[in-house]
Design brief:
This protein has 740 residues and is α+β, with helices and mostly antiparallel strands. Helix content is 49%, strand content 13%. The strands form three sheets. Strands 10, 11, 12, 13, 14, 15, 16, 17 and 18 form a nine-stranded antiparallel sheet that branches. β8 and β9 form a beta hairpin. α8 packs parallel to α17 and α22 runs parallel beside α24. The longest helix has 54 residues. The structure holds adenosine-5'-diphosphate and magnesium ion (MG).
């Protein structure tokens, strides 16, 4: 059955399609017939802002003064929450939430899956006489008890001892989640096992921040500071995503189940024209973005930037940076809101790192810095020599951290989906290096070469004054090819995946920084004890740091083959191409020691993370492999056979008339269909032959299943370009990327 000519059916519209099959045609009709989405009405920003958050301000007006003071102390200093305070807070929180229509509350936590989990409970309390009252106590606020064994825990909790606890994280405010199904009071929590092991991503984040704070204050003390507030890490995460019309998603089992296209030939027009980045945002998308932003504002999430990304159908949203812990919760909320809102607008929001082969992938650039209220941003070069010294030491600590633990940073971004992006010549390579920018790199090279020795103070001063204040704070001096780049007053971890929680990368950054500051502080302390003046001692430590760790600084083209060679052969850096290479880093003795020493993860907790992430990687790839087989056999092959039959009949008919016939296309289709069956058989037997043991299984996925899926795909994509478009069941790249 041939598709009906779309222009006949939908005269006047423009199409991103040739002669689509019936289901695709219906999808096109749905899309083109979508009524214009109304722009959601919203009041002024000041009214909208944080209106659904039980913020400090809301608490201040709702709580008795001493209670508020006590709570504020806990939030600021990170101490324990007084139990008598919890009851009062719970009452106020319940009153605030129920007044706004909430019937339920939920402890929200972040299991090791990159997702958000919630356990909902009603405020309802039956009174025995048939009546009910709403009830919420300090105990219910502070502690919850979901089933610890139902979340991936890497063997920490077995099902027969399933107790897991959530505990309110007072540093992250409670908020109301408004959905068409009702309003829920959400309480951000940590999630731990009955024996106190962290089962989530937030607990280690809080611990890593405390470890970093401890060492940073120690170094600041050595530098002569006397008033030092708690040091916190900040994060501003840029989120890239794709929007595809949901009428098309409905026809793509791969997008539904795997979040990426497992098949799809390149369109005639891709992103070659570079005409999408910062281009005008399509109207329908703009309406969607506004809707998202209004919701984020209500949740107190400072959405700041929005624009088109490099690929067609790709966009970005970036909130203003916040304390890492809050930013992490907000990042999770952003992903939730993006997905839910997209649905309401007839879109599917794809957070996968590589939904389309050959098209730019999506990352989540994690902008990260550390600072406090007394010294400010410790990664800001500033303009006075004294501040520069402080900056140089903290920046030097970052450089050392990346050099010592680059493979750990790679492991923190290792997922099956992010592997498609890293090193794919449009995203940072899998080799972790630091980009400093030419001026700062020069300063550090000078320090390394010892140019600053000698007449000590004057020379040091002149370095500080002459060079550093000119530091280019402007993003003009950028290196898109670096996985980890200094950008004026922060580092940007560009290799993080778009679908990931930012907690893991932040834990690693905070922890390796804590370790490196400790090392630098130790070195500095030794020299100060031996009588060296502060500046001389500091520059000696910096020189030593650069000599030992300068190899990780790289300002050239990270995509080039030359860098891949130099990095590994001359600089001794590791190129961990796949997650199967990167995840075992978590089992290295020095990594275990790092996490144990800093108190961020116990050996048991670390081991469980390896187990969980390895299992997720294996699951993701095996699901894809099964899906490849199912789609190839039940969707693609029948379409190919139908097309072949039509063409063969036509050939026979022409030959019966004695016409000269060119069979080349028919033969090519026949040959590719053989290839399709053959590669499917191979993939099936490889899938059935999974080896025992996690490490071997990881390798099997990376080295055997992935290339096999690629082989099936090559046959399918070849066929897509030859087979009758009216029979092709899957929406094409052209349709998915351009039709909106
Ligand atoms: P670009 O696309 O040029 O990298 P964006 O404006 O899209 O920049 O995003 C920059 C992100 O970095 C924002 O989230 C911003 O709030 C964040 N940021 C800025 N300064 C800091 C800082 N000191 N620490 C952490 N994040 C920061
Ligand atoms: Mg950006």
């Amino acid at each position: 059955m041939r598709g009906v000519s779309p222009s006949a059916r939908l005269g006047g519209y423009t199409f991103q399609s040739f002669m689509p099959s019936q289901p695709r045609l219906q999808a096109l009709e749905t899309i083109l017939g979508r009524p214009p989405a109304p722009v959601a009405a919203a009041g002024p920003l000041e009214e909208l802002w944080a209106s659904d958050v039980f913020s400090l301000e809301a608490m201040k007006s709702a709580l008795p003064k001493p209670v508020f003071k006590s709570l504020q102390r806990t939030i600021k200093s990170g101490g324990k929450l007084d139990t008598s305070v919890a009851d009062v807070v719970a009452q106020a929180m319940k009153a605030w939430a129920t007044r706004r229509g909430a019937l339920y509350y939920a402890h929200v936590f972040y299991p090791l899956t990159n997702l958000t989990a919630e356990k909902h409970d009603g405020f309802i309390a039956p009174q025995g006489d048939g009546s009910v009252i709403s009830e919420f106590t300090g105990k219910l606020l502070v502690q919850g008890e979901p089933d610890g064994s139902s979340f991936p825990n890497g063997g920490i909790r077995s099902t027969f001892e399933a107790r897991g606890y959530t505990a309110w994280d007072v540093t992250s405010p409670a908020y109301l989640m408004q959905t068409p199904n009702g309003i829920t009071l959400c309480i951000p929590t940590v999630f731990v096992s009955w024996t106190g092991e962290a089962l989530d991503k937030k607990t280690p984040l809080l611990r890593s921040n405390a470890a970093m704070d401890h060492q940073a204050r120690r170094l600041l003390t050595l530098l002569g500071e006397t008033e030092i507030a708690r040091v916190n890490s900040s994060c501003g995460a840029e989120q890239e995503y794709f929007l595809v019309d949901s009428a098309f998603t409905a026809l793509r089992p791969d997008l539904q189940l795997a979040g990426r296209t497992l098949f799809g030939a390149p369109p005639a027009k891709g992103q070659q024209f570079d005409d999408h980045y910062f281009g005008a945002i399509p109207e329908r998308v703009q309406v969607f973005m506004q809707d998202v932003e209004h919701q984020l504002y209500r949740l107190g999430i400072p959405a700041k930037t929005r624009h088109n990304e490099v690929a067609p159908g790709q966009f970005e949203i970036a909130p203003f940076h916040e304390a890492a812990n809050v930013a992490t919760d907000h990042q999770q909320l952003i992903m939730t809101v993006l997905k839910a809102t997209a649905k309401q607008h007839g879109f599917t929001c794809l957070l996968h790192e590589k939904p389309f082969a050959g098209v730019n992938g999506s990352g989540k650039h994690v902008n990260w810095s550390i600072g406090n209220s007394t010294q400010g941003n410790l990664l800001d070069p500033g303009s006075t020599p004294h501040e520069n010294l402080q900056f140089l030491l903290f920046c030097g600590a970052v450089i050392r951290g990346v050099h010592c633990y680059g493979p750990l940073m790679r492991a923190a971004i290792a997922t099956a989906s992010n592997d498609h992006r890293l090193g794919a010549n449009e995203a940072p390579p899998a080799i972790i290096s630091v980009y400093l920018g030419s001026q700062l790199e020069d300063v550090f090279q000078q320090i390394r070469s010892g140019n600053l020795q000698g007449s000590a103070k004057a020379a040091l001063m002149s370095l500080g004054v002459d060079t550093l204040p000119e530091l280019n704070k402007d993003p003009g001096d950028r290196n898109r090819t670096s996985p980890f780049a200094f950008t004026g007053n922060r580092f940007e971890f560009r290799a993080v995946g778009s679908g990931q929680s930012v907690a893991g990368p932040l834990v690693v950054l905070n922890t390796i920084l804590a370790d490196s500051i400790e090392w630098i502080a130790d070195q500095l302390e030794q020299r100060l004890h031996s009588g060296l003046p502060l500046e001389e001692a500091a520059f000696a430590v910096l020189k030593q740091t650069m000599e030992a760790h300068g190899a990780v600084v790289f300002g050239g083209d990270g995509y080039s083959a030359e860098w891949h060679r130099i990095a590994v052969e001359e600089r001794g850096l590791e190129n961990l191409r796949t997650s199967a290479d990167a995840l075992p880093v978590l089992k290295r003795p020095e990594i275990r020691a790092l996490f144990e020493r800093t108190g961020v993860l116990s050996p048991v907790e670390l081991e469980s993370r390896f187990e969980v992430y390895a299992e997720q990687y294996i699951l993701a790839i095996e699901v894809e492999a099964k899906l490849v087989l199912r789609m190839a056999r039940t969707q693609i092959y029948p379409a190919v056979m139908a097309s072949l039959e039509q063409l063969a009949q036509s050939v026979v008919a022409q030959e019966s008339l004695g016409l000269a016939v060119d069979r080349s296309q028919v033969e090519q289709i026949a040959q590719l269909s053989q290839q399709l069956l053959h590669t499917c058989q191979q993939l099936q037997s490889d899938l059935d032959a999974a080896p025992a043991g996690v490490d071997a299984h990881l390798r099997h996925c990376a080295d055997v299943l992935m290339p096999r899926m690629g082989a099936v795909r090559a046959a399918v994509d070849g066929l897509e370009q030859l087979v009758d478009d009216a029979l092709w069941p899957l929406p094409t790249y052209q349709e998915l990327l351009f039709q909106r």
